[in-house]
Amino acid sequence: MPKRPSHSMGMAESAVQMAHAEGASNGASGINWLDRWLLGRIVERAGRPPVAMTLWDGDDVYCPAEAIKGRIRFCDRGALWSSILNPEVGFGDCYSAGRIVIEGDFVTVLREVFRSIDRASTQRFKRDLLGRIPKAARNTRAGSQKHIEYHYDLGNDFYRLWLDERMVYTCAYFETAAVTLEQAQLAKMDLVCRKVALEPGMRVIEAGCGWGSLALHMAEHYGVEVRAFNLSAEQVEFARERAKSAGLEGRVEFIQDDYRNITGVCDAFVSVGMLEHVGPDNYETLADVIHRSLARDGQGLIHSVGRSLPTPPSAWLEKRIFPGSYPPSLREMMSIFEPHQLSIIDVENLRLHYAKTLMEWLQRFENNVDKIRQMYDDNFVRAWRLYLGGCAAGFASSSTQLYQVVFARPEHNTIPMTRGHLHTTTQPTRWKLD
Amino acid sequence: MPKRPSHSMGMAESAVQMAHAEGASNGASGINWLDRWLLGRIVERAGRPPVAMTLWDGDDVYCPAEAIKGRIRFCDRGALWSSILNPEVGFGDCYSAGRIVIEGDFVTVLREVFRSIDRASTQRFKRDLLGRIPKAARNTRAGSQKHIEYHYDLGNDFYRLWLDERMVYTCAYFETAAVTLEQAQLAKMDLVCRKVALEPGMRVIEAGCGWGSLALHMAEHYGVEVRAFNLSAEQVEFARERAKSAGLEGRVEFIQDDYRNITGVCDAFVSVGMLEHVGPDNYETLADVIHRSLARDGQGLIHSVGRSLPTPPSAWLEKRIFPGSYPPSLREMMSIFEPHQLSIIDVENLRLHYAKTLMEWLQRFENNVDKIRQMYDDNFVRAWRLYLGGCAAGFASSSTQLYQVVFARPEHNTIPMTRGHLHTTTQPTRWKLD
Lengths: 434, 434
What we know:
2 copies of one chain form a homodimer. By secondary structure, chain A is α/β, with parallel strands linked by helices. Chain A has helices at residues 11-26, 33-45, 77-85, 87-96, 106-129, 141-152, 156-160, 181-195, 213-222, 233-245, 283-293, 315-321, 330-337, 351-367, 369-375, 378-396; strands spanning 52-54, 60-62, 70-74, 100-104, 203-207, 225-230, 252-256, 266-272, 294-306, 343-349, 401-408. Chain A folds into 2 domains: 12-129, no CATH class; 141-422, 3-Layer(aba) Sandwich (Rossmann fold), CATH 3.40.50. Chain A contains 16 helices and 11 strands. In chain A, the strands form 2 sheets. The first copy, chain A, has a 7-stranded mixed sheet. In chain A, α10 (233-245) links the parallel β6 and β7 (252-256). The longest helix of chain A is centred in the N-terminal third of the chain and has 24 residues, at 106-129. At the A-B interface, α5, α13, β10 and α14 of A face α5, α13, β10 and α14 of B. β10 (343-349) of chain A pairs antiparallel with β10 (343-349) of chain B.
């Protein structure tokens, strides 16, 4: 399994590296008024979260009166400057390098910081961002191929260490707090199938199928025929093997291709966790793909990470983990449905379910951290911890949403009239996120 | 009860009136090639619907091969020109005046025409309208007062003739095809209450409360305190009387005021059927009202007629029935939620429920048509028939939608995790619209 190449170092990073060396040589005693002032700027920008902040001497420079949830320690001057000059990438890279340390419950600390940042910036968001569509990464066909390989071809052995047994790499659906991740992923797949009202003999197109779990589940348990598309060679190969073992080859076809090349007609168009990689520039193209694929009384579902407000994606996440990714707002998603007057019939926000899913993944990741460190290195482990924990915190703090949008052709008048059948119980299921 | 003043007649209308007189004097024999050509234009613009079209001699000028669903008859030349020159207002006014006659099942004929128009114009919509926000009526404070009086102060005696016993003038919720309108309105109110998770002692603000049914229902059955706002003097007076009779005066306060003047803090903000009268220009104002009213862990629901695509409202409806009204697309509605980063947690489209509700209202309206004719006149009866039947057809054909949008403060992390409890059964409820 190839190790990730080291990040190439730009000018700003070199400067920070020098500050790092200087900070290190200065030792604890080298802290001066500027260091304290810079940390004060970071505290203010973060909206004064209930989290202590220290410099490399270990003394709290900032410690709010309210019960603190943890502590963030900047281990050298370079880490401080990095976080000021390039807050997202700098902080993320320095954490990954072990030059910023987070003490206390990892997800809780991040969640409190995200909440605090969101509160502090609401007014600024309103003033500056409303109506402006932030620049999103461009996903040309070649770009998409490269971006998908970067993340999803990291190796099935790696993902197997912390995903559920079916290798479902999207938000699960926890009907109660007690169910396992395995059960919750199964429940999510059933929820999706019920939402698009699958019936035996229907034709399904799945755009972005991961390791093939949903496609196989639909074919096996709902008697439908599925054509499933995915750009990742490793995932498609794995999915084809599974279809073969399950004797479902005749009913599920896995196609290694771009969603833009989707062909065929379907009664249900399903896409779970792909839209994040499409980018708003391509929503009208996706609209045309759905329009030419969907039967006249067809319906579909798009499941995607999203935002309450059009917001630039985390620069660090975009750079180090998910190149080309962009979680849209509902407003932005409408560009997929409006061109051909698709009728939105249901939107459900599962953000707390994704927070719980990510916390489960992080737990399994930590349980296997030694193996993962051997496969990659410490930097990789910390980067992925920050990704999984940071995303969990993002969903828990509501800075990120998870939308399941069900849509139908306008001619479709025989959709179920109520939604009770989507559920297994009419009892309130009020579990609380830990 | 005052009769509606006759419509003031503009230049175009005078010209059409002259053509009318001329057509009438020409009689059946006066049909010429131009009349037939004009009707042909109307047929093309309507996308060649499965509905025959005739002129005043009663012969079908257009009768498609497929099984026709009914017939539209233009009774004079003026009605023909009106429908060409000003398709929405002209057609609506001539129907109201009895100069255009619709044969066959009224709602079915209109539904087929709407479907056909929508299909024919999808490509044009895409080219011309996408991204452009159509001009909406301006609802200043004075304008809103006038617009609301025009419709809602027509007289409680009139509305009592065709609404349910509780006088609920919004989309009902039919859990099965067999329930009555009364049961369906009750079910809708309970659905709304469950969606905002009412609990005893909560404070509710209702923006636009009609005759007060929902406010009273919430106070009586969910133990909450309600402040309900409405501009209509007749409705507020009626609602206050009901609160008094029910002994709920201490827990429900009806306030005759504009939503812009809402004061107080609430745990749930509810607005059912008001947004249509707000207009997109004022969505940011509404956002600020919600923001200043809603407690930190509060949630809310907006229930509104809407569109799949930003579309100008029917000019006839806007002019004759609902001045100042504008049904928004989901994209447009986002301007209410984005400014303060409210999280959308649930959207349900009840368009088929509104089609059924309107068909129930139309049936009751027809059952009482003699009384209504006595209260007003023939023109009024036909105008309201066109309004109720046209709206039923709009929802049935999917040219109009009904969105219930549930939103929450971003800090709100204890919302129920699944939606099963919103429903009374987990069985599929597939009733079909007649």
